[in-house]
Amino acid sequence: MEVQQSLTVCVTGAAGQIAYSFIPLLLSGQVFGQVKIHLRLLDIPKMETALKGVVMEIEDCAYPLIGDIQSGSNPKELFKNCDLIVFLGGFPRLPGMERKDLLQKNANIFKEQGEALQEVGKEDVKCLVVANPANTNCLILSRYATKIPRQNFTCLTRLDQNRAYAQVAQTLNKPLSSLKNIIIWGNHSTTQYPSIEHATADGQSFVLSDQGQFIERIQKRGAEVLNARGNSSVFSAANAVKDHIKDWFNGREDTLLSLGVLSNGEYGIQNGLCFSYPIRCLGAFKYEIVSNLELSDFSKQKLKVTEEELIQEKGLAESI
Ligand code: LMR
Prior knowledge:
CATH superfamily of the largest domain: Lactate dehydrogenase/glycoside hydrolase, family 4, C-terminal
CATH class of the largest domain: Alpha Beta
Protein name: Malate dehydrogenase
Shape: globular
Order of helices and strands: EHEHEHEHEHEHEEEEHHHEEEH
Radius of gyration: 19 Å
Low-confidence stretches: none
Largest sheet: 9 strands, mixed
Number of domains: 2
CATH architecture of the largest domain: Alpha-Beta Complex
Catalytic activity: (S)-malate + NAD(+) = oxaloacetate + NADH + H(+)
Pfam family, one: Ldh_1_N
Structural class: alpha/beta
Strand content: 15-25%
Domain Lactate/malate dehydrogenase C-terminal: 157-314
Helix content: 40-55%
Bound molecules: (2S)-2-hydroxybutanedioic acid
Number of strands: 13
CATH topology of the largest domain: L-2-Hydroxyisocaproate Dehydrogenase, Chain A, domain 2
Domain Lactate/malate dehydrogenase N-terminal: 9-153
């Protein structure tokens, strides 16, 4: 098939694990289809040699879709002319670190990257934040890159949504393709609310015999994987990054999706928080927040809990 157009895509944390799984998906056409990709790879100076190795491997794949490649540690060089930046790089949670310490370390990284974006970024660049705490990192990034429209900032909750679909399919013993509209609300953390309230299986609404167990399973799935592997989720995260970008870019009619986006107050959530909502992806990186779903009191209470956590995270980030 003929290559139709090109996109410039930057990946941060490019020598890291998720990038190592995501880059092959990107360059083999599984994200954008037959679109040429000019690649920008950013990582910290300490990772310079490893990053060179990643570039060598990309070259050795001889991907027909690869355009030019630039790599380095300066966001002001690498963010220039980008159409999309995937923020995989963050400070990892080390043993004994409090959430507040993690927030602080990452707030500084995302402040610096937001400033770089403001200085050299294209005004229509799209951003996907994956590094944790993803929602609050995304909020900080947007705060420092004010020339970029707020709807261009998103964070990843598609991993949670994919997990929820898989668990429901197993529980109901139904194919994944029969399920629609399972929604992740709020923070990508243990307060997130995976909801089946508006979901259908074969077009019919359904209940789970133990909804509490389902919610907790999804909320704690990241930790469950971490404990089993001794390491965070990698290829399932990269796969969710692929799904998020692909549907955001192409549009998706058949189901609601979950993306963390900046709130305009929908469902009473504080304006400006980065909150995972039910989203309709319209194509060409456009989307709308579906803001008219009826919520039960149970759901409203769950939304409050995860909103409260995001307000606290925002407060901590602002105090830094
Ligand atoms: C996940 O959901 O698997 C990760 O976000 C967990 C983590 O802290 O790396």
